[in-house]
Amino acid sequence: MNIGSNDALIVVDVQNDFCPGGTAAVEDGDAVARKMSDVALNFRSRDGRVFATQDWHPTDHRSFADNGGIWPTHCVRGSQGAEFHKDLKLPIGSSIVRKGEDVEGDAYSGFDGTSLESHLERLSVRRVFVGGLSTEYAVQHTVYDALQKGYSAFVITDAISAVNANPDDDQRALDSMLASGAKPITTDELIGQ
Ligand SMILES: [Zn+2]
Q1: From the CA of 42, how far away is ligand 1's center (Å)?
Q2: Is the pTM of this model over 0.70?
């Protein structure tokens, strides 16, 4: 696919706590980190814009079980668990988008309470390509918001991974994103010309 300066890659929450060994891990987090690195470097080499979201919570965040939420404590700002996966290589010029900094709200979407939309507007971005973690939470909600804000949204189907509290949550999330107007693309299709 042709990629240019009106295209943005959104690398969603490829952080230690969502990867094997983390407190809210998905099974394929390590592989997703490597795939999104390849895509990000390729994207940047073709003048695409690269954004990486980072869940970045205060210790008393309401999504944590200790505070009445449904999640184990994860991605506490400044902690090792909140750092990007060691294999995630972001090209120079990438923008980091931190979310979930307020005590309230899950902030699954990269657009939720962040400056992502204003960055995309300023850069005249029209298409966004979304991959990362986790499929049925942050990836799905980022895609929904992108579509709702009028962007053409692509899901990188082999560079996402799900929590799968129910075994088919990943497929249901993908079906829902596609039914909402997102388009599927693989890393090979994206990186290939
Ligand atoms: Zn979170």
Answers
A1: 28
A2: yes
107 CA → ligand 1 middle, Å: 7
State in Å: Cα 51 to ligand 1 middle. Answer: 18
DSSP 49-68: EEEEEEE-B-TT-TTBGGGT
Q: Could you tell me the distance, in angstroms and rounded to a whole number, from the CA of residue 75 to the centre of ligand 1?
A: 6
Phi, psi of 6 (to 5 degrees): -95, 10
- Domain membership of residue 2 (yes or no) is no
Bridge-based pairing of strands 127-133 and 49-55 is unpaired
CATH number of the domain at 119, please.
Answer: 3.40.50.850
For the stretch 116-135, pLDDT in tens is 999 999 999 999 999 999 99
Q: How many domains does the chain have?
A: 1
